[in-house]
Amino acid sequence: MKPPKPGPRLAFLPYADVEALAECLVAFANANGGTVLLGIDERGRPTETIWEEEAESALREAATRCQPPVPTQWQRVEYDGHTLIGIEVHRSLELHSLDDGRILIRSGSYNRPVLGDEISQLAASRSSAEYEADLVPGATAADFDQAILAEYLAKREGRGAARVTSVPQLLFEIGAVNHAGEPTVAGILLFAPKPQIFLPQSGVVFVRFAGTEPRSGGEEGGPGYGRRDEISGPLARIVERAWNIIWEEMRVGAVLGQLERQEVTEYPPFAVREALINAVAHRDYRLRGRRIELRMYDDRMEVISPGGLPGYMTLDNLVEEHYSRNPRLVNGLYQWGYIEELGLGIDQMIEDMVQLGHPPPTFRATPYSFTVILSSRRRAAPPVAPKWASSMNERQARALTHVRENGSITNREYQRLCPDVSPETLRLDLADLVEKGVLLKIGSKKGTHYILK
């Protein structure tokens, strides 16, 4: 098993540097929390030994540079055969800054400064960040369904987690109960047989409309829809039941491959699944009187999630950034197997839609809702717009031809198309097309590829 790398919830510091440590404390507290490992460089190589006294001193001084102070816990961590000091930071309900006024958040494997409107959005998100940890009036641990809990434990172990020796302790650690064993919002949503008794807003409504627009009435005064289902239950069951209904309603076609007939669904399954799970995992459960809505029309599918974009998320940074309004629910659905890799679903959703000939998904955000729109239309990739012809070099035109014919292009494929040109020049070609809005960059490092925007 390879050692982990720095990422959204893990930072490496080679030395007990006070300033760098303070930056990590603020960035993790303002995002989703994380762990700082001391005595290891960014490539995962141990540096010098950092003694406990040295770490404690650096941590105390770093804490004085955080406004307000960031609560932390430190412990010894076994990492790749070495004993290191790890500093754990929890996501905070407050907005933290450094003593010089900078506000940072964790973005990928870096601490990124937050400026302008992002600060207001981040501050506004603090009040809703821990709703999933609130207690549910009238609920007790007896409201948990033991069969659902047993299924969760089995799925968790199947993903490589250690066997649980104390279920009550695990429920506390994952935020399903408080220290007194009283259920939280997250616990009820994950493990109660019908959370809607306590949280009526946590269900889903599916509607299949006739035509391309919502209608209040159909022919002869009948309903304007062909099917309507109300879906309830714990979150895992909601995902399963909603997916089964969508699958029943999706048209299935066929294409003839080289040797066999292949079925093609109306929408790419991953894109639908990702839009559904994101809505369930990231909706604002504080908003009462509004459930998640799944609307299917003849030409599109809409997934409407109550609550605007959380934290510092905007329509412009959906692909690059990741922020969880409900990290406990996200972790629960991850352990259940519904979320494969955190923060990468939007990339794959866009890629699957484009690769199968659909327009990219459309995202619409208001202060109180977020909507994903998937088009059922399939179309040939459009020709290069004439306005780019005069500002595009011959290599870039060749790259776009490759994308139109194959759906995407990687740096390596571009180098094969232009073997006599330096890799750096080709990288700049692709970056220029991204900047102009012609291509969309998907993935990172060796997994980077480009599709038509």
Summed up:
The chain has helices at residues 18-30, 52-64, 117-125, 146-158, 167-173, 185-191, 235-249, 269-282, 327-336, 345-355, 386-389, 394-406, 411-417, 423-435, and strands spanning 10-13, 34-38, 66-67, 72-79, 82-89, 97-98, 104-107, 110-113, 204-209, 225-231, 252-256, 261-265, 292-296, 300-306, 362-366, 369-375, 439-442, 449-452.
Question: Layout of SSEs?
Answer:
Blueprint: E1 10-13, H1 18-30, E2 34-38, H2 52-64, E3 66-67, E4 72-79, E5 82-89, E6 97-98, E7 104-107, E8 110-113, H3 117-125, H4 146-158, H5 167-173, H6 185-191, E9 204-209, E10 225-231, H7 235-249, E11 252-256, E12 261-265, H8 269-282, E13 292-296, E14 300-306, H9 327-336, H10 345-355, E15 362-366, E16 369-375, H11 386-389, H12 394-406, H13 411-417, H14 423-435, E17 439-442, E18 449-452
Parallel strand pairs: 1-2, 9-13
Antiparallel strand pairs: 2-5, 3-6, 4-5, 7-8, 9-10, 11-12, 13-14, 14-16, 15-16, 17-18
Helix pairs in contact: 1-2, 7-8, 8-10
